[in-house]
Amino acid sequence: SQKIEQNSEALNIQEGKTATLTCNYTNYSPAYLQWYRQDPGRGPVFLLLIRENEKEKRKERLKVTFDTTLKQSLFHITASQPADSATYLCGYSGYSTLTFGKGTMLLVSP
Amino acid sequence: DTGVSQDPRHKITKRGQNVTFRCDPISEHNRLYWYRQTLGQGPEFLTYFQNEAQLEKSRLLSDRFSAERPKGSFSTLEIQRTEQGDSAMYLCASNPTQGAVGEQYFGPGTRLTVT
Questions:
Q1: Å from A1 to nearest chain B CA?
Q2: Residue A107 burial (CB < 10 Å; 0-12/13-18/19+)?
Q3: Is 80 exceeded by the pLDDT of residue B58?
Q4: Which candidate in B56, B97, B101 is best for mutational testing of the A interface (most A CBs within 10 A)?
């Protein structure tokens, strides 16, 4: 069955640097890969979606890539700020459900 | 505010009691999803509705869980005979998708504690 994996260790970076988070899937290429931000005690907030036939998507300081050969999506936050500190969830979706990884916590220090 | 709302935000109950949660999706969204999330994990799919029809349930969803969306608007999730392992955040999400599942809009969640 399809599995989705994110680095469970927290990522610590300094303000102003680029944060890069990784999401790997195991089997077939999903229709979509999606990225969400989640703050403690709150519901996830949608950030970006990338389709199977797209290689890259951008939105302001955010960029997501989809490499079907490596079975991997990378999520980048450029010029990171302490306010970017949160847990970032990757999920794959087809025609009925969205399945999430465990998430990676990002800590941006001033 | 026209976002997804959930009620209650917190619920503490004793083992063996029944609990019911409510979700009000964004009004024009025809799909509604329920998820469960425990500490350190991503949201885990439970079930979803297309309008009033419940189209899929997770195999992890025991018979003690039931969900309804009677008029294709709000939804309820009931847990009967709660167990300590049911303690989690229950999240609701909605989206207007007819085809592949795109961007989902999540509510704030209901945190359930079973003592």
A1: 13
A2: middle
A3: yes
A4: B101
